[in-house]
């Protein structure tokens, strides 16, 4: 390890953390495979209501005593702290931190920094409508801006290094914001730092403009004084000495509108020699292949072209469709392809153990759940089954489902029996072989009850799974399941993880995950405990965006029935446009071209020897969906959970809705309005991310229901339910800066007027820099006046070409810029290393 700590830096903050364990519902990571998140909001500094928080407090993270942070702070969590509260007095300043990341740029002169500023033009979010230059990423990206002023002598002693995070938390950051987070670091000029290098970083969080800042930038913002780097490998090997025909690699940020990676100082145009999924804009991606041409001598941005034979998405996700070979545009307009799912089932010897309550063996529950999955997956979608102990076999090959295929697959599942050790890696490799070469979305549902203890290592399979865009959903059964590994597999692929100590709840997890793997939109969920003769009812609003709706029932295995009713009160019956499937522990009604309006459904306990829990999930084939993220990163410091509902309409964000979060723990119920108006805790208005905070008043298991209504689809009504276990109550401190909401007529104003609304946050100087087309992410050298820019934004010309948020892209060309954002949910789904439920 290279250590270059400055003299006199021994006085750093110590770390103390309180123990906290939380769990999230299996369906509560991303509804599309990336659901996660928590929310806590202190609305209006103590009004206790309508401002997206359930507690009033005047204490903030800025003025609270003894607020300390862990050393292991990923870049995404550091960025989140300053997105919430960008202040020179933040208690994290002065903390020594460590993380793993990649070097995007190493800047050794003002000329190079100016080039980065010019070429990393503003990268827009991928939604239509208003495109406002967001203050969201400014706290981390400000060094790229025109306000920074460094003496040339600075580079005699230091260099500037742009570092992107690559940890699970950084993937979750991407899942929420569509961009990979980064931070600028100050590194001694004597150190050799190459772009495209994977590094372990240690450093001290500093804030320019403070008296104790190591460097005077002429501007204010957070940065990192790097005190140590460990080189973990070079990912970019293209250089000025590379010739046409050479094999090489390149790491950069993906543009949204064309097959090109960029670092701001170097661009790679690529074409696929073999088929790979299309990375989403803002993803950090490595390409390997044969170089066609290079231009590293022009004195401007270095360029190269490559025929790609290998692709790895380091942080990010994939998008539907493929790049068009001739135009370079994405194939978004193509008809969506059917998803491919492989269920990977643990059949090791420990799966013979029995549940102490129901008496069912784990293998019996796994087989029942897999058979139910066969019913939950709709016709035309592809499903395969793999089983593994110390080795893996294909139980059922990947097949397009119809009634005949379902029968064969259920018979194959019935023949499974437990024996041997546990090789999760073997199961993943077998599933990979089934998915390789398929088109359309790819997913794995992995069930295991133990620790991986046989070769091959799952880590040896994971890179190719990620490069093919495979999303992994993991289920841990029993107390000995390898939670750390299962959570990481889900996090790194944008999936969900769930852990159930009792086998009986596994069926419901399969039911929830079946919605995600089919890219369906959840409408509502109803869970009830029934005895014989009992009924439980629910309702679901089907709006005009729904081409098809599914009512699915899951229960332990006696006899419970499900009866949906149309908005006119007619009981649903099998027939034209209605498909009805009944399994031993499931029942499914599928309605094509459903009538819009308020549907209802009733669950009835027909033959039950004891009380049983039944769950009905209502989902739709609809472009409108939402991901619920619950972030517990600084719960220990603030007593607050940050809750975000990211709503989408296809590839765009869904704006204009009203979102209410209801938190229930026994008899305790709280309602919190989540905001998307840049008011209170919401950092960006009209971006489709509805934000708030929650402070638990007591320990126990909370059920969160986030309901979104209205917006672009007037009759929209969707509910997203998650569960969270709180083991300790922490006194609340407001972790965010209060903001004034946008005016109600923001959508009709031009860019110039909208920027003026942001002036209190980004500063008058920053607004002036934007008008000069030299904001903190740089500007567009092509177009001229601010009035012209506003006109372009309002008409959508810049917007349609813009790309991702983290690496930033130019509005017209899609060249990346590079901000600091990032899925939890989740990827993820994981909440504070806890369990999902």
Cα distance, first to last residue?
41 Å
Structural class category: alpha+beta
What is the residue-averaged pLDDT? 79
Q: Strand count, sense and closure of the main sheet?
A: 6 strands, mixed
Low-pLDDT windows of residues: 1-50, 122-133, 325-334, 745-837
Strand content: 25-35%
Number of strands: 39
Q: Which keywords apply here?
A:
5-stranded mixed barrel; 16 helices; 39 strands; 33% strand; disordered N terminus; disordered C terminus
Molecular structure report:
Strand 19, helix 10 (483-492) and strand 20 form a beta-alpha-beta unit. It is built from 16 helices and 39 strands. Helix 6 (362-376) packs antiparallel against helix 7. It is globular. It is α+β, with helices and mostly antiparallel strands and 837 residues long. The model is unreliable at 1-50, 122-133, 325-334 and 745-837 (pLDDT under 50). The strands form 10 sheets. Strands 17-16-15-18-19-20 form a 6-stranded mixed sheet, sandwiched between helices. The chain has a 5-stranded mixed β-barrel with strand order 3-4-5-7-6. The chain starts with a strand and ends with a strand.
């Amino acid at each position: 390890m290279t250590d270059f700590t400055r003299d006199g830096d021994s006085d750093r903050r110590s770390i103390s953390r309180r123990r906290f364990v939380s769990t999230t519902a299996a369906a509560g990571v991303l509804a599309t495979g990336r659901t996660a998140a928590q929310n806590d909001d202190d609305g209006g500094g103590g009004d206790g209501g309508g401002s997206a928080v359930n507690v009033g407090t005047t204490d903030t993270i800025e003025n609270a005593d003894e607020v300390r942070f862990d050393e292991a702070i990923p870049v995404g969590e550091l960025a989140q702290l300053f997105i919430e509260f960008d202040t020179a007095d933040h208690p994290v300043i002065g903390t020594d931190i460590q993380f793993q990341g990649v070097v995007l740029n190493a800047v050794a002169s003002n000329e190079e920094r100016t080039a980065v500023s010019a070429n990393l033009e503003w990268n827009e979010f991928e939604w239509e409508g208003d495109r406002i230059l967001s203050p969201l990423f400014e706290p981390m990206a400000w060094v790229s801006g025109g306000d920074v002023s460094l003496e040339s002598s600075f580079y005699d002693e230091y260099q500037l290094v742009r570092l992107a995070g690559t940890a699970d938390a950084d993937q979750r950051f991407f899942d929420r914001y569509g961009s990979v987070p980064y931070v600028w670091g100050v590194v001694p000029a004597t150190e050799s730092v190459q772009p495209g290098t994977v590094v372990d970083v240690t450093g001290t969080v500093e804030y320019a403009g403070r008296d104790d800042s190591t460097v005077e930038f002429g501007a204010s913002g957070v940065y990192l004084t790097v005190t140590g780097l460990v080189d973990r490998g070079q990912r970019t090997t293209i250089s000025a000495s590379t010739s046409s025909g050479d094999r090489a690699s390149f790491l950069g940020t993906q543009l949204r509108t064309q097959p090109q990676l960029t670092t701001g100082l170097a661009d790679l145009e690529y074409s696929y020699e073999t088929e790979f999924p299309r990375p989403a804009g803002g993803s950090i991606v490595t390409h390997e292949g044969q170089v066609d041409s290079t231009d590293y001598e022009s004195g401007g941005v270095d360029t190269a072209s490559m025929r790609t034979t290998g692709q790895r998405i380091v942080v990010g996700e994939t998008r539907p469709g493929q790049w068009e070979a001739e135009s370079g545009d994405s194939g978004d307009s193509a008809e969506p392809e059917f998803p491919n799912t492989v269920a990977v089932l643990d059949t090791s010897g420990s799966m013979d153990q029995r549940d102490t309550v129901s008496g069912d063996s784990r293998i019996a529950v796994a087989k029942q759940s897999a058979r139910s999955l066969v019913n939950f997956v709709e016709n035309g979608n592809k499903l395969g089954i793999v089983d593994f102990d110390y080795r893996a076999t294909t139980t059922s090959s990947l097949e397009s489902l119809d009634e005949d295929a379902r029968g064969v697959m259920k018979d194959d599942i019935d023949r499974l029996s437990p024996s041997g050790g546990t090789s999760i890696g073997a199961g993943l490799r077998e599933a990979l072989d089934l998915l390789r070469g398929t088109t359309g979305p790819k997913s794995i549902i992995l069930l295991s009850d133990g620790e991986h203890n046989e070769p091959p290592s799952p880590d040896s399979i994971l890179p190719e799974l990620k490069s093919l865009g495979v999303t992994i959903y993991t289920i841990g059964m029993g107390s000995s399941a390898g939670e750390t590994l299962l959570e990481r597999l889900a996090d790194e692929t944008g999936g969900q993880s769930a852990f159930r100590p009792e086998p009986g709840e596994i069926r419901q997890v399969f039911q929830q995950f079946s919605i995600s793997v089919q890219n369906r939109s959840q409408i509502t969920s109803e869970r009830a405990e029934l005895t014989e003769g009992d009924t439980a009812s629910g309702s679901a609003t089907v709006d005009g965006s729904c081409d098809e709706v599914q009512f699915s029932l899951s229960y332990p295995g006696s006899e419970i029935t499900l009866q949906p009713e149309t908005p006119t009160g007619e009981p649903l019956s099998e027939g034209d446009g209605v498909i009805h499937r009944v399994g031993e522990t499931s029942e499914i009604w599928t309605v094509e071209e459903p009538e819009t309006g308020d549907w209802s459904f009733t669950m009835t306990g027909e033959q039950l020897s004891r009380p049983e829990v039944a769950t009905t999930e209502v989902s739709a084939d609809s472009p409108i969906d939402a991901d619920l993220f619950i972030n517990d990163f600084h719960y220990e410091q603030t007593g607050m959970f940050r809750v975000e509902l990211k709503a989408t309409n296809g590839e765009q964000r869904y704006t204009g809705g009203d979102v209410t979060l209801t938190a229930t723990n026994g008899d305790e119920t709280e309602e919190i309005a989540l905001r998307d108006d840049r008011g209170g805790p919401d950092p960006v208005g009209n971006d489709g991310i509805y934000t708030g905070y929650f402070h638990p008043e007591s320990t126990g298991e909370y059920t969160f229901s986030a309901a979104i209504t209205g917006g672009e689809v007037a009759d929209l009504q969707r509910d997203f339910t998650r569960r969270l276990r709180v083991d300790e109550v922490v006194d609340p401190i407001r972790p965010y800066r209060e903001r004034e909401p946008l005016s109600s007529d923001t959508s009709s104003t031009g860019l110039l007027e909208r920027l003026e609304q942001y002036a209190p946050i980004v500063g008058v100087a920053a607004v002036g820099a934007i008008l000069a087309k030299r904001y903190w992410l740089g500007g567009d050298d092509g177009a001229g006046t601010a009035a012209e820019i506003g006109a372009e934004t309002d008409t959508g010309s810049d917007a349609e070409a813009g790309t991702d948020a983290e690496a930033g892209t130019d509005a017209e060309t899609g060249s990346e810029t590079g901000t600091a954002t990032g899925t939890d949910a989740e990827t993820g789904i994981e909440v504070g290393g806890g369990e999902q439920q």
